[in-house]
Specification:
Layout: H1 2-19, H2 21-76, H3 83-96, E1 100-106, E2 112-115, E3 131-133, E4 136-138, E5 142-143, E6 149-159, E7 162-172, H4 174-182, E8 184-185, E9 189-194, E10 200-203, H5 210-213, H6 222-229, E11 236-241, E12 247-254, E13 261-267, H7 268-271, H8 273-319, H9 334-390, H10 397-425, E14 433-436, H11 437-454, E15 458-462, E16 469-472, H12 474-491, E17 497-505, E18 508-515, H13 543-553, E19 557-563, E20 567-575, H14 581-586
Parallel strand pairs: 15-17
Antiparallel strand pairs: 1-2, 1-7, 3-4, 4-6, 5-6, 6-7, 8-9, 9-10, 9-13, 11-12, 12-13, 14-16, 17-18, 18-20, 19-20
Helix pairs in contact: 1-8, 2-8, 8-9, 9-10, 11-12, 12-13
Length: 587
């Protein structure tokens, strides 16, 4: 016994060693997920850093040139300067600062004083205020005749806290475009600048620069909408599908004081390419390790699992009643011993089954015999006693008729009992003809009123207002009604009531037989239609079984509803038939 135990222990150790790899694999998958998340966060942060630096450079570029305009304004407001000197200063300034295409000085009445342009100035004082940096107002960006971006810088001049005019400059944003063009991430990652109203100001993708000239509004793009809905100035990152249907990773940051937004957009396939490649390699390594573990576990565990599966199949076969099933387990360990014990158990079950069948046959024969004695003894004794009385010469004619009626009634009981037995063994075929349920039910009720009166029970009948016709067998259905009414009489105490109702509900005809008797316990309702099941003290319990067979032969159903102490109601349902309805109504 010791070597066999050790043999199983070795196999269990191998299985447990293989199972120990599962937590490691789970840890590996979790680590992969964490690595992927961390890598993606690193990519997002790197793109955010690029967008932040670009925003800072654009801000510095705008602020620097706005400061230059303020310095020019300070020079022009020198009291000792003549108009010619102011004109010379402005023209020299435009020549030195390439970003300003034109600068014009207006008086407090909005009339131009001096301008860097030869001839009439082109710039005008904006009517509406825009963004402001250090007192310099900036108009929205526009594209000039050369399809180049420009905007207007306006500085309101004061002298001794009194309006002294305006200094207006047309500012070129070409350098900002070049700055945006220089921002590249990977092969397909570009930057863009969005105005506060969602208008595209600059785009680093050469294929999309035309969108700037078309004054494309980007307010509906997911990332722009997220930035505009954000209540803070913190950078925003988002994965979304762009207008071309391509998955993008976008990061956005606002430019301080300008209201502009710098967006850096990169296809997710490119942004996460390195992380995805590393992840695929790790998945491949884990999958290979898992396959190796499964192969080793299968190789070492097959000999251990196969006997268990064999025993499982054998157990299922035996549970389904196939007691001839045997298992073939030839190992010399506990599993082999279990297989031999299983076969011994199956042999013993076959023997026990034969013993149980024999005992059931004996019990059934005893029950049938007891039922026959109970059901037939009393009517046979009555027939014998009344037959002997009929042989007496001193009986009057009325007495002879009474004894003859008793003999006929008990012979009818015996015949019905024998018919029930024959129907259980071999149900009689039924013939179907159109028949009125009201007529067939009323015939049976009238024939059984005397029996009910003898027990002190009233029978009430409520018939449908019009003939209700089904295709049925009058004699077979009469037997069904008699069985149900007889059971109701036997279950009802004197003074009780039996009600029989017929009605048509749509395409179904219903007959209900209800009594005010003792009722049937709920735990016995499910079995009352089985053969040899009865709730009475005597009898074989064949009446309801035969009743159900007849009803089902006529494509009907029978249902029972009972409450102990309140009574029982049986409901028959048959398909209605309009065939012969007029003839039934006339009759």
């Amino acid at each position: 016994m010791r070597p066999r135990i050790r043999h199983i222990a070795v196999r269990f150790a191998l299985l447990l060693a293989a199972a120990a790899v599962v937590p490691l694999l789970a840890y590996g998958f979790i680590s992969l997920r964490s690595l992927a998340g961390g890598t993606q966060q690193t990519v997002v942060q790197g793109n955010l850093n690029v967008a932040t630096r670009a925003a800072e450079e654009i801000h510095r570029y705008i602020v620097t040139n706005a400061g230059l305009l303020r310095a020019l304004a300070a020079n022009l407001q020198e009291p000792r300067l003549t108009g010619d000197q102011q004109d010379s200063i402005i023209k020299n300034y435009v020549l030195q600062v390439k970003e300003f295409r034109e600068i014009t000085l207006f008086d407090e009445n909005r009339h131009p004083i001096v301008t860097s342009r030869v001839g009439k100035p082109r710039v005008q004082i904006p009517q509406a205020a825009g963004a402001e940096i250090d007192g310099v107002e900036m108009s929205p960006m526009k594209v000039d005749e050369d399809l180049l971006p420009t905007m207007t810088f306006t500085l309101k001049l004061t002298r001794l806290n009194q309006p002294a005019g305006w200094l207006v400059g047309e500012f070129s944003l070409e350098e900002m475009w070049r700055m945006v063009d220089r921002i590249r991430i990977g092969d397909h990652g570009y930057a863009m600048v969005i105005a506060p109203d969602g208008e595209l100001v600059a785009h680093g993708d050469p294929d999309k620069k035309a969108l700037v000239a078309q004054s494309t509004n980007m307010a509906s793009d997911p990332l722009v909408a997220a930035v505009r809905s954000s209540k803070s100035d913190a950078p925003v990152s988002l994965e979304y599908v762009d207008r071309d249907g391509r998955a993008e990773l976008g990061v956005a940051t606002r430019i301080a004081n300008l209201g502009w937004t710098v967006i850096v957009e990169q296809p997710t396939a490119e942004a996460y390419a390195t992380a995805n490649k590393l992840q695929r390699q790790l998945y491949a390594a884990i999958s290979l390790a898992l396959l190796g573990m499964i192969g080793a576990g299968y190789f070492f565990g097959r000999q251990f699992i196969t006997p268990i599966l064999t025993l499982t199949r054998g157990t299922h076969e035996v549970a389904q009643g196939h007691l001839e099933t045997r298992v073939d387990i030839r190992s010399q360990d506990e599993l082999g011993e279990l297989g031999r014990s299983f076969n011994t158990m199956a042999d013993r079950l076959v023997q026990l089954q034969e013993d149980v069948k024999r005992q059931e046959r004996q019990a059934m024969f005893g029950r049938v015999a007891s039922g026959l004695v109970h059901d037939l003894l009393h009517p046979i004794q009555n027939v014998g006693n009344n037959a002997r009385l009929l042989m007496r010469d001193d009986l009057s004619g009325e007495q002879r008729v009474e004894h003859a009626q008793i003999i006929e009634r008990d012979m009818t009981t015996i015949k019905r009992f024998l018919d029930d037995l024959r129907n259980v063994a071999k149900p009689k075929p039924v013939e179907r003809f159109p028949m009125d349920i009201n007529t067939s039910v009323s015939e049976v009720i009238e024939s059984m009123r005397m029996e009910a009166d003898r027990h002190g029970i009233a029978i009430e009948a409520r018939y449908a207002s019009a003939p209700v016709v089904i295709r049925g067998d009058r004699f077979a259905l009469g037997r069904v009604y008699r069985n149900l009414i007889t059971n109701a009489i036997q279950a009802t105490q004197p003074g009780g009531r039996i009600s029989v109702t017929t009605r048509r509900a749509g395409s179904v005809v219903e007959i209900t037989v209800a009594d005010t008797g003792s009722g049937i316990p709920a735990d016995r309702l499910a079995a009352i239609f089985d053969d040899f099941v009865t709730t009475k003290r005597r009898g074989l319990g064949l009446g309801l079984a035969v009743t159900k067979r007849i009803v089902e032969q006529l494509d009907g159903t029978i249902a029972v509803d009972s409450e102990v102490g309140r009574g029982t109601a049986f409901t028959l349902r048959f398909p209605a038939s309009d065939e012969g309805a007029s003839r039934a109504a006339a009759s």
